[in-house]
Write a structure and sequence with these properties.
The chain is of the alpha+beta class and 312 residues long. 35% of the residues lie in helices and 30% in strands. The protein contains nine helices and 15 strands. The two termini are 32 Å apart.
Length: 312
């Protein structure tokens, strides 16, 4: 488990700049990171005694999929593709490479932020507790390691089961989920508006889905130096941005999209057949196509479909 350390902003500035060797390592990790549903498949295999109850959900997916859908009404920049397969009355969804709009461009800005976040985590996180009760240092663990939680929620009667990466902070013998994010310390009015409609909206959606009430904001300058880290309540961010986006619009769009998929795939029962939903951000349009039989887009592994067939 990753915990937010009790780090005071007064402990000194934190440089987020990476060495060239570290940069190359992160480029490789960034370009090869998986965005499929393997985590959930392995989790469901590990809880055989609860499998029937868990697969009673209408959808199994990652938080990333729900985040893309909830942010879509305000996203006019990022195209995406979501693949969906229905097997034994459960619809599985995952985010896949978007080939509908050509070869994706390498996002250097996104890579830079990912490298900075990795360094910030090394400074601010611990990795649980040793047998002697002492906190383990984050860097003692594999840097790319990430703890995931599995969550269940219902929206307009539609049951969702999804995983999400989580951090926590200790409170006596308990812990609460929190998050760690970065924000540039100085922006003009237009930059603030764009930032609120993109980054802050994403933070709110991520927090809403897993019940996070507080995030830690690291304020960095133009030289990638963090000078302060401020705990901030999610409701404060929402109040700051309520003129930029509406939580109701996000939730309603998610509910209507999920309902449309349920109706569209009502007669489907195949681990191989895949519906590909493409979002054209520029025009605000979602289209779909169907890939039948076993194909390059099929993402439910044979071992998992066999496992479900034997146990349900």
């Amino acid at each position: 488990m990753r915990f937010i350390d009790e780090l005071s902003p007064a402990t000194g500035p934190i440089s987020l700049n990476a060495t060239e060797d570290t940069h190359q390592e992160n480029v490789k990790e960034f370009c090869t990171s998986s965005i499929y549903l393997d985590n959930m498949f392995f989790f469901l295999r590990s809880v055989k005694e609860k499998l029937h109850t868990l697969l009673d959900h209408d959808f199994v997916c990652s938080r990333t999929v729900l985040e893309l859908l909830m942010c879509a009404p305000y996203d006019d920049r990022n195209n995406w593709t979501i693949a969906a397969s229905k097997y034994r009355n459960t619809i599985y969804m995952c985010h896949v490479q978007n080939n509908a709009f050509g070869v994706p461009r390498f996002d250097h800005e996104q890579l830079k932020k990912a490298i900075w976040m990795k360094k910030l985590r090394q400074h601010c996180l611990t990795s649980g507790v040793n047998n002697d009760g002492q906190t383990k240092d984050y860097q003692q663990e594999k840097d790319s390691g990430q703890y995931y939680g599995v969550f269940s929620m219902t929206i307009t009667g539609i049951r969702l089961l999804f995983d999400a990466p989580v951090l926590a902070e200790r409170s006596s013998n308990l812990f609460n989920y929190v998050d760690l994010q970065m924000r540039l310390d100085t922006m003009n009015r237009n930059e603030w508006t764009i930032f609120n409609r993109t980054d802050v909206l994403k933070w709110w959606v991520q927090s809403f889905l897993v019940g996070i009430q507080k995030i830690y904001l690291a304020y960095y300058d133009s030289k990638a130096i963090v000078h302060r880290i401020k705990p901030t309540m999610i409701r404060e961010l929402y109040e700051e941005c309520k003129n930029n986006w509406s939580a109701n619009v996000c939730a309603n769009f998610l509910a209507r999209f999920l309902d449309a998929i349920i109706k569209l795939m009502a007669n489907v029962d195949s681990a191989s057949l895949v519906y590909m939903f493409d979002y054209d951000a520029k025009n605000g349009i979602i289209s779909y196509k169907v890939a039948e039989d076993r194909n390059q887009h099929s993402f439910i592994p044979d071992w998992f479909s066999d496992y479900v067939q034997r146990n349900i």
